[in-house]
Amino acid sequence: xxxxxxLLAASVTIPLxxxxxxxxxxxxxxxxxxxxxDAGPLGQVQVGGLFSFAGRAQSNVxxxxxxxxxxxxxxxxxxxxxxxxxxxxxxxFYLEGGAYNFYIVGQPxxxxxxxxxxxxxxxxxxxxxxxxxxxxxxxxxxxxxIPGITPLTSLISDSYGIEFGLTGAxxxxxxxxxQANYTLGPVSASLAWTDGPYSNRxxxxxxxxxxNLSKASTVIAQAGGNLxxxxxxxSAASAYLNNSDFYLLGYNYSGSRWNLFGYVQYQKLLxxxxxxxxxxxxxxxxxxxxxxxTPHYSLSTRVDYIAYSDQAAVANPGNGMGYGPGSRAVSxxxxxxxxxxxxxxxxxxxxxxxxxxxxxxxxGQNGTAPNQFVAMVNVGFLL
Length: 383
Fold this sequence. Notes:
disordered N terminus, 16-stranded antiparallel β-barrel, 17 strands, mainly beta, single chain
C-alpha cells in the first residue's frame, strides 16, 4: 500500500516533515486552514479533519467474493479522520485517528471496517519529532512510509484520483520505526529503520534522496529492503512483500495549472527465508497528470503498468500480488475533481486490462474476464 506526504489536509502535516515525497496536493486549490488551538503548555496545536463518502460501480465482480468485491454497486465511508499536530518548537508531534478505506485499480474493494482491521487500526499515524535545527529532524512512531508513494487517504495527498494505481498494492503506506530527515539547499535525504509494510518485525532499512531541479521540478530516488528475511507475515504485509527489495525513481512537476508525477519501480520478491530462492521480480510504471481549469475544478489522468517475471509467486487479485506467474496489466484512469471552500467532490473512471494471466486469478464470476471497468464518486468536506 493508497504517497508519503500528508494523510490529511496538506497544511497540517507538511510543515512537520522536512522532506517527504513530492506533494501531489497541488492539484487541488489551497486547503482551508486547520483550526489553531492554544493547548497551554503544548503551545499552539493544529486540528484538522477529513470526512467523505464513496460510491462504487464495477463490471466483472470478483469470483466467489463477498461484501463490496462481489457486488456491482457498493458504498462506504471512505474517510472520517481527525488530526492533531504541533509543528513548531524543538519537540513536535502528529496524531491521526478515525476511519478510512483504500481503493486500488484492479484489486477488490472491501468494507471500511475490514480495511481498518486488516491494516493500521483506528490510529494509523502517531509520531513525535525532535527538531534541533531547521534542516534536520528525527521522527519515531507510526510514520508515513518511504518505499513507495501511496498515502493513507484517497484525497489531498493523492488528489489524482480516488483509486490508487496498479502499483499501489506493492507500495508501503504506514510503517513503524525511526526516521531521520536532512536538507541542504536543493538536496533532501531521509533514512529510516522500520518494520517495512507494517510487519511488526523491525528489519527494514530504507532511504530516500531528492533533488530540486527548480521550484517546480523534483527528482526522487528511493531504495529499501528487508535485511532479516524472517518469513513473518500479517494481514497488512504478506511474506512476499515483507521479504523484498524495493527501488523507485520518479519525477514531479508542480506548475500553476499543470501538475505531473511519473515514476518507475522495481521490486525483487525474495524468498521467505534467507538463502532461499527468489520468487521473481515485479516491474511498475505510472504517469499521473492533472490540469486545473479553474481554481475549483481540475481533471486528472493516470496511465500505469505492472508486470511480474515468470517465476513470480502464483497469486490472485485478493492479495495484491498480481494475476499469476508472468502476468501483466495496464490501466487508464480519469478523475474530475471539484472543490469549493471546505467541500469537495471527485470521480474516477478506470479501466484495467490483464494479459498473460492465470485462469481464476482475474475478474468475473469464473475469474477468467481480463477486463474491468470501475466508476466511483467520493464527496465530503475538510475541517
